[in-house]
Amino acid sequence: MAFETKIQLPGSDKKAPQNAQLGGAVEAGSTVSVTVLLRRAGAHPAIAPEETPAILSRAEFSERHGAAAEDLKLVEAFAHHANLTVVDSSVTKRRVILTGTAAAMAQAFGVKFSSYKSDDTGQTFRGRTGAIQIPAELQGAVVAVIGLDNRPVAKPHFRKKKAAAAHTTFTPPQVAELYQFPAGLTGAGQTVAIIELGGGYKTADLQTYFENLGITAPHVVAVAVDGGANTPGGDADGEVMLDIEVAGSVAPGADIAVYFAPNTDQGFVDAISDAVHDATRKPSVISISWGAPEDSWTAQSLAAMNSALQDAATLGVTVTAASGDDGSTDGEGGALHVDFPSSSPYALACGGTTLKGSGSKISSETVWNETANQAGAGGGGISIKFPLPSYQQAAGVPAQPTTKYLGRGVPDVAGNADPTTGYQVRVDGQNVVVGGTSAVAPLWAGLVALLNQKLGKPAGFLNPTLYTLGGTVFHDITVGNNDDGGLGSYSARAGWDACTGLGSPNGTALLSALSNGSSSTPGKAPWGKHKHKHH
Amino acid sequence: MSAPSLHVNPDREIVTTIVIRRPPQAAGVGERLLSGEFQSMGRQEAERTLAAAPQDLEVVRRFAAEHGLHVVSENAAARTMRVEGTIRQMEEAFGVSMHQRRDGAGHEYLSYDGDIALPQSLQDVVETVLGLDRRPVARSHA
C-alpha cells in the first residue's frame, strides 16, 4: 500500500519551545497550513562569482533550479492519500502548500502537537517535538516541511480587531495600520491596475475574503491583453489573489482592473501599454509582481519594457514593481543580479522586510532573509543595465561590486514580505499565509491610491520626490542583509541600501510631505554620502 | 540554449506588435523625469508629446499592406500597431526564420533565429517587433 512506510525527515528534530508554557491539546479540527519544500531537480550551477553569469531562460532556470515534476506529483499524491488539500504547487518555487486539519497533519507527518503560550507575548501557538516522519517514497525529494510548528493556527474567519499581543502574520489592513496609512481614505475615484501573466481569481473567493475582513468588496474587472484571460485553477492563482486582496483591502474604495496577458515580452509590454493608455478606466497606479533577473531578458525586450515604463511615468501613472524573492543573486546562484522590471529607473522598486508589531506600533523591522529555511530573501542590488538615475545621485548607491558599473540601485522602498510574518489571504477556497515582494507592490499601489484620492491629482512618478524626503516619511531599516548566495552583498545600513531602499512607509507622513510639496532641491537626499564602503 | 527546434505551421495566424519610435518632441523627456523636473505632464500634454508621428504611422501601415499583414489595432499614443498575418507572411516581412521551441519543462513556444531584418524605410521608424519570439519572460514574486 502506498505511503505506508515512514522515515525520519533529516534535520527536522525539534525540542520543546523555550520561554513558553505548555497548554492543552491542539484542537483536532483546527486548520494547519504547511509548506513542503523540495530538492532541486538539476545539478547545482557551478558558476564562480567572478565569471559572467550564464543567461538562463526562465525555462532553463526552472530546469536547473526548479523541482522535478515527478517529485511534485508524488507529494500531491501523498497529500490526497493523507486527506490534505493541495493549495499551491510550484516547480520554480520548489514548494507545495498544503492545508488540512491538525489531526490529519499529525497523522500525515507522524507528529504530536501541543498548544503553548509564549511567556513574552502571551500569544498561544502550536508546537511539536521530535522529528517529522515522511513516507519512504518521498525520501530525498522532500527537503523540509515548514509550518507544523510555531505558526498561529489559521482560523476560517480573520480577526479584524486589534490584538493586544504581537501578531506573527497579518491581514493587509493590519500591515497598513503598522505603516500608518492615512486614515479616512479608501482610494475612492481611483483605479488600480494590476498586471498578471498567468493564473486567475474567483469572485466568490474575493467576496468571502473581504466579507471576513468586514470590508465592502471593491469592484474588480478582468481585462484581456493579447489573448490573455482570467484563468483560475493554475499555479499563479496565489499571485493574482494576493495582489487583488492586498491592494483591495488597503484601498477598498478604488476600482481594480486586472490586465491578463501571456507570459511573453509582447504580453508584458502590451499589458503595461494598455493599462497606461486605458481611456475608459484611466488607472493612476499600476502594480507589477512579475519579473526575472535582468540578464535573462533580451536587449530588445528590456528596451521595450523600459520604454513603456517611461511613458507610464510621463503620463503620471505610478508603477510599483516587486524586486524579487531570491535575495541578491535573484535566484541565479553564484553571482549578483537584480530583478527587472523593478530595476527600471521608471519603476518604484519594492523590496522586502520582516515586520513585527501590533496595532500601529512596529516592534521590529529587518531585511527579509529566510535563506536558512530556503524560504526566500528580498531582492535588491545594483543594476548592470541601467545607469544611476539623477534622483539617486546623492543616495550613496555603491558601484556594482562585480563589474564596478555605476548602476541604478534597487529597491527604492520596502514593505513586509517575509512569509513567516506574511499576509493572510484567500486562494482557491483556502485561507493561507503568503509572503514575497509580490505583496509589497500592491501594498504600495494601494497607498498611492489613497494619496491620489486626497491629493486630488495623480502622484505620478514619485521616485525623485521620495529621495528628497527625510524625517518621518520612511522607517529606515538598518539591520539584516539579503545575501542568499554567501557573496557578502548586500547589507542594510542607515539611509538608502540595496536591501530595503529608503525603507518602509509612514503613510501619513508621506501624504503630509506630498501635500505640502515639501521636497527640497530635486536630487538632493537628506543623508548625504557615506564614508565607508558597502557591498 | 539546448532547446530543440520544431517545425511550425506556416499558415498559422499570429499577431505581432510593432513598436514605433518616439517623435522628436519627446526627446529628453526621460532625463527630465529622472531629474525630478516634473512629476507628470498631465495626460493630454503627455499623449501629444509621446504620440507617434503621423508620417511614421503611415510608413508602417504601408509596410503592413505591402506584406499582406492586416492591421488589427493602432494606438498612436502608445506608438504601437498590432498586425496579423500567417507565419509565412511574418517571416517574409521581417526577414526571420521561425520555428517552435520546446524548453526543458516541456513548454513550447514560437521563436526565430538571427535578427529581424527591416527594409531601409522602416529601420529608423520601428524600434522593435514583439511577438515573433514568445519565450516566457517572468515569474511571480509570491
Average pLDDT score of chain B: 93
Stated plainly, the CATH topology of the domain at 5-22 and 52-130 in chain B is called Alpha-Beta Plaits
As an assembly, this protein is heterodimer
CATH class of the domain at 5-22 and 52-130 in chain B: Alpha Beta
Measured as a percent range, the helix fraction of chain B is 25-40%
Q: How would you sum up this structure, described in words?
A:
The complex is a heterodimer of chains A (535) and B (142). With 535 residues, chain A is of the alpha/beta class. Chain A folds into two domains: 6-146, no CATH class; 172-516, Peptidase S8/S53 domain (Rossmann fold, 3-Layer(aba) Sandwich), CATH 3.40.50. Chain A has helices spanning 58-65, 69-81, 102-109, 172-178, 203-213, 237-250, 265-276, 299-314, 440-455, 463-466, 507-516; strands spanning 6-8, 20-22, 31-38, 85-90, 95-101, 112-118, 124-129, 133-135, 142-146, 191-196, 220-224, 255-260, 285-288, 290-293, 318-322, 339-340, 348-358, 361-367, 381-387, 407-410, 413-416, 423-427, 430-434, 474-475, 504-505. In chain A, strands 10, 11, 12, 13, 15, 17, 18 and 21 form an eight-stranded mixed beta sheet that branches. In chain A, helix 5 packs parallel to helix 6 and helix 9 packs across helix 11 (507-516). The model of chain A is unreliable at 43-58, 151-167 and 518-535 (pLDDT under 50). Chain B is globular, with a radius of gyration of 18 Å. The model of chain B has no long low-confidence stretch (mean pLDDT 93). The longest helix of chain B has 13 residues, at 54-66. In chain B, the strands form two sheets. Chain B has a four-stranded antiparallel beta sheet. Chain B has a domain at 5-22 and 52-130: 2-Layer Sandwich (Alpha-Beta Plaits). Chain B is an alpha+beta fold. Chains A and B meet through helix 1, helix 6, helix 7, strand 14 and helix 8 of A and strand 2, helix 1, helix 2, strand 7 and strand 8 of B.
